[in-house]
# Entry
Amino acid sequence: MSILNWFTGQSKNDDTIIVKTLKSKGVGKSPIPITVKDIQSGYATDASGYRNEVVLFLRKNKSDR
# Structure
């Protein structure tokens, strides 16, 4: 599966592929798994219901900067 399939909606299991785990900005700062579906929607919800905004930043390799 290519990363391009994630953005075009051609991936079948978007809600099971965990890309990264981050801390929530809500109360308790619990860890939340960021899935492909969360990246597509732009939001990830933690266990307490707080909606965290998901933003992607693309950058060059360190050797190219």
Observations:
- The beta strands are 18-23, 31-35, 43-45, 51-53.
